[in-house]
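Contributing new records

If you add data, match the layout below exactly. Sequence lines come first and carry their own label; structure lines follow with theirs. Keep one chain per record. Anything else will be rejected by the validation script.
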Amino acid sequence: MSKKHVESINHDEDARQRERFYRKNVEFLRLVEKIKLWPTRAGVLHGVKSIEYNGPLARITTHCGESFVVRDSRNSRAARWLRNKWCRCACKDCRIPDWKLAKYNRTHMTQGWGSEL
């Protein structure tokens, strides 16, 4: 993906905002449905428009028009990237709002504490 379609993620945290805690090993598609973000292999975060379930598979459609089929795996590359926040930038075409990126940056995934969604 070319650089003109991405913008860097600002990791500044505001102390007034509430932090959120989710369990680290929840079902991956439930986590994606909750936070509405999808990481690509290039390190770009996309906004999720819709998720259509078909057994253990799901079709994810992003706001920039991409559509793909994924498997519900807790150990997948995308699940690890979301939990560990390894994404470097956000897609400009998806127009992810700043408040959503800030909320994602304040979210912690821990093993023994947090909501199980």
